[in-house]
Every structure is written in C-alpha cells, then in structure tokens.
Amino acid sequence: MAVALRQRSTMAHHPSSGSVDSALCQERFQLPARGASVAIARHRVRSRAPEWGFTEDLCEAAELVMSELFTNALVHTGSEQILCLLRAHERRMLYVEVADQGGGPAVPTPREAGLEDECGRGLALVRALADAWGDRPGGNGGRVVWAQMGVAAGR
Question: Where is this region: Disordered (predicted)?
C-alpha cells in the first residue's frame, strides 16, 4: 500500500529530536547505529503514539515492531545512522519505517528459530504484530523496512 504525504510549511522542527507534524501525525528521526539507540527509538514510539490517541495495546505492538526493525538495521547492515518514521493515519493505522544505509542482505527474510536459538525471531514477531510489512530499496544502497498496524492489531 502506497501512502502519500502532504508537505506543509507549518512543520515544526526540533533539531535534536527530528521533525514532527502534528497535523499529519508524523515524526521522522535519525539515530546513530548503536545499541543504546534502540531504546531511544522505542521511547519515541512509546511517547508519540499515545499522544495521537492510539490504544495501549497498539502502542506496545508498535514499540516492539520499532525495536525489532531498528535492531535488524543495526545488526545486519553497515549503517552509521538509521532513519525512522512513525506516522498515524486517522488514529486507525500506525505506520513504522526504518531505513538503513546498506551493507546488509538484499532482502530481509524471516527465519525459523529453534527453541534454543537466541536470535532469529524478530521478523516473525513483526509479521505476527503487523497487518502488513515489507521492504523496498532505500537511498544510497540501503533498505527501508516498514510495518503497519491497525487499531485491532495490538494482540
């Protein structure tokens, strides 16, 4: 599903925290590709989604999806920075997007993790929590991985 964005000249800009457009319910932010940034990305979702009127269940699901997508970009690419987008559509759909700078696998693929495996469940979790998810080529050789969750998706 392609989602078109209107650009508005009234977009508020916060240099240290990214940009927010409350009329569109959208926030874009970039973080360094470090382990500590995963918690910051989760926190951004956790603080913004309730402001936009989403249920606790959906906020928790979106927070977990952001965490998994950000972690995959961190672990599986050679990125120095990771760009994130959080967007609400009519308080019924929440869209999460993570863009890396490349250097990883061409296409993210869910794996079947064994009972004793410590890794390999992230995309399966995203698939379980999201109504839809996917990827596309990003700028400068990177990938964009996205997920969208509806109000009923918080399981």
Answer: 1-20
Measured over the CA atoms of residue 121, residue 125, residue 128 and residue 132, the dihedral's sign is negative
Give the H/E segment covering residue 150.
strand 143-150
Mapping DSSP to helix (H, G, I), strand (E, B) and coil, where does residue 52 land? coil
- Residue 23's closest CA among 37, 31, 12, 34? 12
Tally of helices (H runs) and strands (E runs) in the chain:
3, 7
* Domains within the chain, CATH numbers bracketed: 24-153 (3.30.565.10)
Packing angle, helices 122-129 and 56-76, rounded to 10: 150
Residue 38 CA to residue 44 CA, distance in Å, equals: 10
Query: Token pair of 129, please?
Result: 């929590």
Give pLDDT tens digits for 86-100: 999 877 899 999 999
Helix (H/G/I), strand (E/B), else coil: 75: helix
Residue 9: is its pLDDT beyond 60? no
The DSSP letter of residue 35 is H
Measured between alpha carbons, how far is 146 from 135 in angstroms, rounded to an integer? Answer: 6
DSSP state of 114: -
For residues 132 and 148, is the Cβ–Cβ distance under 8 A?
yes
